[in-house]
Amino acid sequence: MTKAVRVHQVGGPEALVYEAVDVPAPGQGEVRIKQHAVGLNFIDVYYRTGLYKAPTMPFVVGNEAAGEVAAVGPGVTDFHPGDRVAYYVNLGAYATERNAPADKLVKLPDHITYEQGAVLMLKGLTVWYLLHKTFKVEQGHRVLIHAAAGGIGLLACQWAKALGANVIGTVGSKAKADLALANGCDHVILYKDEDFVARVKQISRNELCDVVYDGVGKTTFPGSLSCLRPRGLFVSFGNASGPVPPFALTELNNHGSLFATRPKLNDYVATRTELLEGADTLFAAVINGKLHVPINHAYALKDAAKAQTDLEGRLTTGAAILKP
């Protein structure tokens, strides 16, 4: 019997219900996947709490996973039973088996594990588009990465450093600072003990940053704007502390003709070509050693409530997975 973690009514971690579900035969253009690892992400919390609205109730949580093709539906020619695959699909990932659209799957290279694949499809592709598409990080750029010891943060620090950037990260503890430094950060700011804006100004000798990558949201805004040089880019891609409040566009003018964007992964992998470009670039970076995938926590799928509680409590570092 297939098991999944579903939400029947939005709320706290107790809203996550581990239960048996029926999974039909894969339909037109679908693939049935026996899942080996599922990624844990803050977006899962956003859906559970209702910050992001699920299209139906109840719904299965989760957006990225990796596993083995168990069956294919009509019209599927690129995948076959036994293929190793990974995916990013809105909802449905917290399950032992599930059906997914074939055009959202990518094949895992031999040197990429299921565990790595499960955390690369959302977190890894997010870092890919942030550093290569939203703002093209190049040699000599100075970047600020909030939550530098998180799942996205550690990958972003490594990749930005590999691209030649000077990397500044914010973290919440000395242990997380050490982790960020070991993963590409040139300078780490303990935001609980230090004014991160003042430290960025000190570190940069008042030259500030070309881009700020902010997945934290409410508590780091508007300080992030004050860390940017004139015509710098503020990239708000997450809401770990709550959404960025509405603000007047004149704030961008006041800080030096800044640019600001609120991107999401779906818009950068909207076509099959874009998805494969991102996945190929990402997997190559892992295989050639530019990116190490730090999976520091693993939970049983049935313990999803504990996993999300730890994530919200800032008790995790790097990536975390659920094991079906």
Can you characterise this structure?
The chain has 324 residues and is an alpha/beta fold. The chain has two domains: 2-122 and 272-323, Quinone Oxidoreductase, Chain A, domain 1, CATH 3.90.180.10; 139-262, Rossmann fold (3-Layer(aba) Sandwich). Helix content is 28%, strand content 27%. Strands 3, 5, 6, 7, 8, 15 and 16 form a seven-stranded mixed sheet that branches. A six-stranded parallel sheet has the order 11-10-9-12-13-14, with helices on both faces. The protein has a three-stranded antiparallel sheet with strand order 2-1-4, with no helix packed on it. Helix 4 (174-181) links the parallel strand 10 and strand 11. Helix 2 (114-134) packs across helix 3 (151-162) and helix 2 crosses helix 8 (272-287). The chain is globular, with a radius of gyration of 20 Å. One of its GO terms (molecular function) is mRNA 3'-UTR AU-rich region binding. This is Alcohol dehydrogenase, zinc-binding protein.
Structure, briefly:
The protein is of the alpha/beta class and 324 residues long. It is 28% helix and 27% strand. It has helices at residues 42-49, 114-134, 151-162, 174-181, 196-203, 223-226, 250-254, 272-287, 304-312, and strands spanning 2-7, 16-21, 30-39, 59-60, 64-72, 84-88, 97-101, 105-107, 142-145, 166-171, 187-190, 209-214, 228-236, 259-261, 295-300, 319-323.
